[in-house]
Amino acid sequence: MSLRPHPVPLVDNPQEYLATKWVDSDELHRLNIPYIKGPFSLAERDQIDAAIHSYQEAHGPAGQEHALSNDQVVDLILLKQQTGFWPHVACAVPMRPLRSVFNHVRQARGPFARSGGWSTLAGKGLEQAVQDHGRQWDKVALAVGRTPEDARAHFVTKLEHSEHKSGPWSADEEMQFLTVVQGLTFEGRSFDLRGFWAEVSRRMNHTRTMRQCKHKWDAQFRARVVGGGKKPAWTATDDFILVQKIRSCKVDAESLIDWNSLRDEGWNAWSPLALRKKWGALRARVSVEGATHQDIVRELAQLIVLPSTPLP
Q1: What span, in angstroms and rounded, lies between the C-alpha atoms of 157 and 139?
Q2: Distance CA 80, CA 229 (A)
Q3: Which positions ≥6 away from 124 have C-beta within 8 Å?
Q4: Which residues are CB-neighbours of 258 under 8 A, at least 6 positions away?
Q5: Which helix (H) or strand (E) holds 48?
Q6: What's the rounded Cα separation, in Å, for the pair 109 and 49?
Q7: Cβ neighbours of residue 305 under 8 Å, at least 6 residues apart?
Q8: What would the mean pLDDT of 77-92 be, rounded to a whole number?
């Protein structure tokens, strides 16, 4: 069993760094700064709303009797580098990167936040806007009445490479996929860094999407490749390792767990998604109404012990 300690962050104040620096996930990985990924919880959305409201109340312009108007708040949301506003909001949601908070708020509260799905006509308008403005997503977004993030995501995932396939993978596709993944790892690329699976998709001529490629690896090939050609079975020992690793995280909520960080050189057959599902099954053994994450971890640590090895 290997219980790897979490790497020490390379900055003095990781939370301040997350809330004030416009950096991407690759840089956060390089600096060993833990952070939360994925959708914002209801509690986090409430914290963000409260932070925006407090800023709105405290920062009315000179000569204005009352707080900032809602239109003035929207103006702030549209300004990425606006001094003070974004760090103030990001500080309200610990362990969320500033860039992630920015994207979430723009999607939720920007002028085109509730534009709905993309119709065929809207998609054609987006293609025309990209022809007119290139990948200047702020200009493209204004042309189609969407947020820059929404416009970019729809174009890249749905329109740019319409040759994406769906359904089962052929044997030739799987062979090409493994060759591409192996080539990237030989180049020193890491599965967990931003852009790895997008590059896999690109080298497969975009016949499969980034998400399809990542899911294919996690669901079918990771365990087999790491296990030397055989897919290992999950054992009681793995239950014990998982509980001890989560216990070592010392976080107050399951949402704060960095699932990527749980794997190490001696225990890396399982994808972050697989570990999360396994933890859910373990948690169900002891989960009771009102129990906190730490309550569940303590109870599982007492319940699940390292299986004894019989003497020869």
Answers
A1: 19
A2: 48
A3: none
A4: 34, 35, 249
A5: helix 42-58
A6: 10
A7: 240
A8: 82
Structure tokens given for 278: 């396994």
- Amino acid 271 reads S
Q: Render 177-215 in DSSP notation, one character per residue.
A: HHHHHHHHHHTT--TTSTTHHHHHHHHTTTSS-HHHHHH
- Residues 212, 215, 218: CA angle, nearest 5 degrees: 150
pLDDT band, residue 312 (cuts 50/70/90): very low
Find out whether 205 and 244 touch, Cβ atoms under 8 Å.
no
Residue 84 has pLDDT above 80, yes or no: yes
Supply 164's token pair: 């994406």
Q: Phi-psi region for residue 210, left (φ > 0), alpha (ψ -120 to 50) or beta?
A: alpha
Give the integer Cα–Cα distance in Å for 195 and 217.
15
Which tens digit of pLDDT belongs to each residue from 284-311? 888 677 788 888 999 998 988 876 654 4
Q: What is the token pair recorded at 247? A: 């216990």
Of 187, 208, 186, 132, the C-alpha closest to 197 is 208
Q: What is the CA radius of gyration of the chain?
A: 23
Question: What single-letter amino acid sits at 152?
Answer: R
Question: Measured in Å, how far apart are the chain's first and last C-alpha atoms?
Answer: 21
Cα distances from 195 to residues 26, 67, 101, 190, in angstroms, run 9, 42, 20, 10
- Residues contacting residue 125 through CB under 8 Å, at least 6 positions apart: 143, 144
Number of other residues whose CB lies within 10 A of the CB of residue 304 = 19
Kind plus residue range of the DSSP H or E element containing 124: helix 120-133
pLDDT in tens, 89-99: 999 998 899 98
Q: How far apart are CA 262 and CA 274, in angstroms?
A: 12
d(CA 17, CA 6): 18
Give percent helix, percent strand, percent coil of the chain, each to the nearest 5. Answer: 55, 0, 40
CA 96 to chain centre: 10
